[in-house]
Each structure stands twice: as C-alpha cells, then as structure tokens.
Amino acid sequence: MIGVRTTPTAGVYYRRMPDTLSETTALLRRTPAAVDALVRGLPASWTERNEGDSTWSVFDIVGHLIHGDRADWMSRTRTILEFGESKPFEPFDRSGHQREVAGKSMEDLLSAFARVRAEKLAELEALQLRTEDLDRRGRHPVFGVVTLGQLLSTWAAHDLTHLHQISRVMAYQYRDAVGPWIKYLGVLHCQGHGG
Amino acid sequence: MIGVRTTPTAGVYYRRMPDTLSETTALLRRTPAAVDALVRGLPASWTERNEGDSTWSVFDIVGHLIHGDRADWMSRTRTILEFGESKPFEPFDRSGHQREVAGKSMEDLLSAFARVRAEKLAELEALQLRTEDLDRRGRHPVFGVVTLGQLLSTWAAHDLTHLHQISRVMAYQYRDAVGPWIKYLGVLHCQGHGG
C-alpha cells in the first residue's frame, strides 16, 4: 500500500491512496531502477545503436522518459486540477529529449531519470488525490475530454511502452547473431507500433 | 570488460572473453536484477494477470526464464562441446515452467531466477571459451546445424523477448484505464509474435 501521511499505521502516518492510483505509482516508482539495472554499465553496442534511420537508441529512449517527466505528466495534472476542460494541455514535444541527452553519458541519464521521477512522484503525493479526483476532466489538444485518471494511467503505460521499445531495440542488435532462432524470438518480429 | 582469471590486471587475474560473448554475458548478468527491480513488491494486479485464455502472466514468464536457465542453455552448450553435430539437443519443454512456479510466490521466483542465472553464468565462465569455440557446431532438433555462438546469443535475446512480453502483459492490464491514449501507446498494439 502506498500512501501519504495523515493517519497512524504502525507508527507511520498514512492516508490510503485510491487503489488505481496506488497501482500506477507502484509501477512508476520502479521503472527507473529497472532500467538502471538493465542498462548501467552495458557495452555501448547495446545502448547506443538504434533500429536504423532516425529510430531511437536506448540512450534516446531514456532521454525521452526524462523529458516526459520534466515537461509532461505533472504539468498536465496541474492543468486539469487548475483549469479543467477550459484549457487544453500544451502539446508534448516528442523531440524534446534531444536537449536532455546533449553532452550526457548513459550513466548521467539513468541518474537524472531516477531523480526527476522521485521529484515528480513527491509532487503527485503532495496533491493528496482522492478517488473522486481521478474523474476530473481536462482537454487534450487532439483527443478532447480526458480524465485525470486516464492521464496518470497513461504515465505508467508510457513507461511500459518504452520498456517494450528498449527490449526490442536491444534485441535488434542480435538479429543476425541468433541465426535460425530468430523464428522463435517474438521480439524480433515486433514492428514497433510507433513506440 | 568481463573475463575469467588467468592474467594479472590491477591485482585481479583476467583472461579476456571474446567480445561477442562479453556482450552476451553483460546482458545475461543484468536481467534478473532488472526484472526484480520492476516486479518485486508490485501489486498482484500487475503480476498475476495475463492477456486472456491460456496466455502467460508475469509470474509465469519469470518461471519460464528460470526453467530455461535450469534446463536449456548450458545443457545445450555442453551438448555442443561434447558431441558436436552428432547428438541433437533435447527438445525444450515450453510448459516446463509449471513445475517451477507451483506453490511459489513472485518473490520466491525472483530470487530463484537470480540464483540460477548466477550459477549458470559461473558454469559458462568456467568453460573459458575462446573466440573460435563460438563457431563450434551442434544440431538443433528442428533447425539442424547451429553454432555455439548462435545458442549463446539466443540466450540473451530470449531474455529480451520475455522483457518485451512482461512489459506488454503489464500494459495490457491498463488497456481500458488509459482511455483515448491507447492510440499512442505502441505496446498496446503489439500482437505478441508468439512470445
């Protein structure tokens, strides 16, 4: 159970978060450590190569995750809480990660991701959202009306879409090395579906 | 650089592994910690649900990774080194994980995966393989002739195919929660490609 401090439980003060939000933050808290455990110290042949043309490497993907946390999710959360449907979200710049990665090492990015994620989750917890808040509505520039619950669920699913991409981009580097086994390796048949 | 002890470097004895093997083991060493960081302590709503019908949950997938390490990769490596093309590999039982997971908790499985992976990598290092060993040939029951290099690369790519599957199975649990954002979440458009 995840919570913020207001009522006493085993010597610590907890207010129970809505279940769906608790599931969402349980994942969001784990992603930086999972990516770090997978990637930190790996040879650059795994992390700096992409799938060809202008596709992303693992390095780019971690930059994108940082940029999303810095620019997108909590900013949109606050737009919903402050303005509701009256103010559309700022569009998200999918190339915004280029500023995040310039001059950085993979290790820098992994540390920056852990840091910004912890900051943003602390901001989220400080809002002390209740179940009914998840139904609050905002306006997406393309989709129109969305709810705060959908936005926060998408933050978690967005982590998963990029974990999916990281595993695919890494596997791509071994597409020849595996020889005939390519037939059995689902990840090497994934078309990417735009992420 | 990964190595086994034979020549002195900074007070420790190292023999340099072939580069491709070093890349492969760099990934293999990290997978259990990455899965652990992502999954340990997560609510069961993320880890015990599947994609419907007889598909696998995260729990099943970790069981399968354990079973692969216990029954498959190093056993086939030894078959190649001892018998070459003269003896086909034992077929791998894709439902063999059912024995691994029976009566276990998710936490048990994560610890078992870390343990068996460390054991199997120690066995691999003890073989002190050289670059030319990677060209040694064995016989796959379906594909026919394969090399040791292809087998070991497939071990790593198999980790990635199941990381890819883990992220997809988890995202599937949020397919409704994300509302219209499903359009942008590639992982929710992944058909699975058999893994």
Keywords:
homodimer, 195 residues, mainly alpha, two-stranded antiparallel sheet, 7 helices, 52% helix, 10% strand, elongated, disordered N terminus
User: Helicity range of the residues of chain A?
Assistant: 40-55%
Task: State the order of secondary-structure elements of chain A, H for helix, E for strand.
Answer: EEHHHHHHEEH
How far apart, in Å, are the first and last alpha carbons of chain A?
A: 31 Å
Count of β-strands of chain A:
4
Question: Hey, which two chains have the biggest interface?
Answer: A-B, 60 and 60 residues
Task: List the total number of helices of chain A.
Answer: 7
Describe the fold and architecture:
The first copy, chain A, has 195 residues and is mainly alpha-helical. The first copy, chain A, is 52% helix and 10% strand. Chain A contains 7 helices and 4 strands, in the order ββααααααββα. Chain A has a two-stranded antiparallel ribbon with strand order 1-2. In chain A, strands 3-4 form a two-stranded antiparallel ribbon. Chain A is elongated and about 55 Å long. The first copy, chain A, starts with a strand and ends in a 23-residue tail after the last helix. Chains A and B meet through helix 1, strand 4 and helix 7 of A and helix 1, strand 4 and helix 7 of B.
